[in-house]
Amino acid sequence: MNKTIVVGMADYKVGKPPAKLMTAGLGSCIGVCIYDLQAQIGGMAHIMLPSSKESMKGNPAKYADTCIEMMLEELLNLGVLRSRLKAKMAGGAQMFSFAGKTPLLRIGERNAEAVAQELKKVGISLLASDVGGTFGRTINFDIKTGNLHIRTINHGEKVI
Question: What pLDDT score was predicted for residue 57?
Answer without folding.
Answer: 72
